[in-house]
Amino acid sequence: MKIVLDAMGGDFGPGPNVEAAVSAAREFGWEIVLVGRQEMIRPLLVQHNTANLHLPIVHASEVIEMGEHPAQAVKTKKNSSMVVGMQMVRNGDADAFVTMGNTGGALAAALFHLGRIQGILRPALSAVFPTAKGWKLLLDVGANADCKPEYLAQFGLMGSLYAERVMGVRNPRVALMSNGEEETKGSALVQEAHLLLKKGPIHFIGNAEGRDLPAGNADVFVTDGFTGNVIIKLSEGMGDFIKGMLREEIMRTPKSKLGGLLIKDAIARISARTNYEEIGGAPLLGVDGVVIIGHGRSKARAIRSALMRAAEAVERGVVDAIERGLEALPRTTNVSAQTSAH
């Protein structure tokens, strides 16, 4: 197993990336290639015991920063850590690419240098979402603000295959985000996508409302990138709001402080159940290679988990499975008459 790690990705620079690479290489025996500015990576690497570990450095002098325009940065920064890493995967010099860097930059670099799996119309950014019934997959969460029904049908297939092969879900339940459970609810896009998903080679259970996502009433939730991105950002904001409000109220009076001590263990267990560090990253599905993208705020534990997700996707043949699965998908959205009939 040879995984490329974007050592420059994330809010905290190369430090957590190097620490995660050392930990994963030591435990699993993988070769992890650290791509980035050698003069910053090497001093950090020598602080660790790397005897018998495979941790080569590939120098890349440029970095795609968080605030840059993704496509423009990928085109102009040809020696960036993202571009160099993606090219290694394309050329067969590595099995997967992992980054905590600019999400749009990772998407653009993957499209330019890996390309799409043959037959895939649009790749999808996914997110692993904490629910009452464990972690579930949501896609797309930002790659495609405007979608066609065929895109959503392919998202359903790709999400189902990833949930089954990497997340270990047997016969994953796939749901389509809508404003009602009935088949006739939703926009024209949702109604046509519903018909295609129903015909696909997946366990499609119909429409899901917003409340079904935190309840975990499906294993894979499909939506367009605009809606998915709003869901993710709203959920992050609500999580921070609730935690802040709870902290504020616990500290308000001596009595509530005592209550806070009594529920301290319960709060710790809730935090563990929703701790993104255990997942680390989520796949960019539909590109011709394994690409895992994590949160910019990730530290070593989360990055190590992202490396594990990459290895699992490689070992379980997610890319090949998607290519084969496309053959069973409906090829047309000529369903307007059917939609009207409903």
From TrEMBL:
Known catalytic reactions: a fatty acyl-[ACP] + phosphate = an acyl phosphate + holo-[ACP]
Predominant subcellular localization, coarse grouping: cytoplasm
Enzyme class: transferase
EC number(s) stated in the UniProt entry for this protein: 2.3.1.274
Pathways per UniProt: Lipid metabolism; phospholipid metabolism
Cellular component GO terms, alphabetical: cytoplasm
GO terms, biological process: fatty acid biosynthetic process; phospholipid biosynthetic process
Alphabetical list of InterPro entries matching this protein: FA_synthesis (IPR003664), Phospholipid_synth_PlsX-like (IPR012281)
Coiled-coil annotated residue ranges, if any: none
Record's subcellular location: Cytoplasm
Highest taxon of the lineage: Bacteria
MF-aspect GO terms: phosphate:acyl-[acyl carrier protein] acyltransferase activity
UniProt keyword list: Acyltransferase, Cytoplasm, Lipid biosynthesis, Lipid metabolism, Phospholipid biosynthesis, Phospholipid metabolism, Transferase
Function text: Catalyzes the reversible formation of acyl-phosphate (acyl-PO(4)) from acyl-[acyl-carrier-protein] (acyl-ACP). This enzyme utilizes acyl-ACP as fatty acyl donor, but not acyl-CoA.
Subunit (UniProt): Homodimer. Probably interacts with PlsY.
Record family assignment: Belongs to the PlsX family.
Name of this chain's protein: Phosphate acyltransferase
Lineage of origin: Bacteria, Bacillati, Chloroflexota, Candidatus Thermofontia, Candidatus Thermofonsia Clade 3
Gene: plsX
